[in-house]
């Protein structure tokens, strides 16, 4: 009986060592909690990766799982991110890290010393967590709930497309064109400027959208190849208030999707943003206001 027990223990230890040294899919794991919802974390990882010269974003296996590579001198590190929603305002982030060039030596050293690989991983993720925290402090999303009828209006608009992150800059470029041509032709405005998303590619973070000025329709509207007109029809939607830089107003889109999922509300993933501040005037970004709507399916 003792021999069987010894054999089992030795066999288990050998099995564990084989798994730890050769089969374990990562060298190091880091877990931390973030006081925000998954959409903000997803977009923050991608933005952080795009602004890091040593980083390469690989793929998004799902909205909650992302792969990334970072180059450190002669070492290539693979980061596998998993975002787990916890509450309405918090998430858990798990990061599995593997040194693709020195994996075996790291695994042999980690149990006995604090390696440079561990130090670098901790430092890198502390940097990300700080940037995430700073970002969270610079915007606010407040869910209002379902509204029965968003306003309908006739609009002058410019059709645009591009990355989500470029939405605000495109809006700022086209704001002077739209406002000046309408003012020059004495067209009466009928509300706040807004954008209407017609297609949202969540895998590639790109959008097709219309930048709209609500107007009073008349018989002598200005004609321009870049300017279009149509009737925007409102309807039932989930509403949120966003305060912050309009570059990241899409954080409210993800908050609305989370709200819809938790409340079993079927929505069209084509949000509408109504802007109450002009970014060209600057000012405290937390005082900028936008109403964000996620249309409810009929």
From TrEMBL:
UniProt entry tagged with the keyword Repressor: no
Coiled coil: none
Swiss-Prot/TrEMBL keywords: Membrane, Transmembrane, Transmembrane helix
Residue ranges of every copy of the GyrI-like small molecule binding domain listed in the record: 186-297
InterPro entries attached to this UniProt entry: GyrI-like, Reg_factor_effector_dom_sf
Residues annotated as transmembrane: 7-23
Gene3D superfamilies recorded: Regulatory factor, effector binding domain (3.20.80.10)
Name of the protein this chain belongs to: GyrI-like small molecule binding domain-containing protein
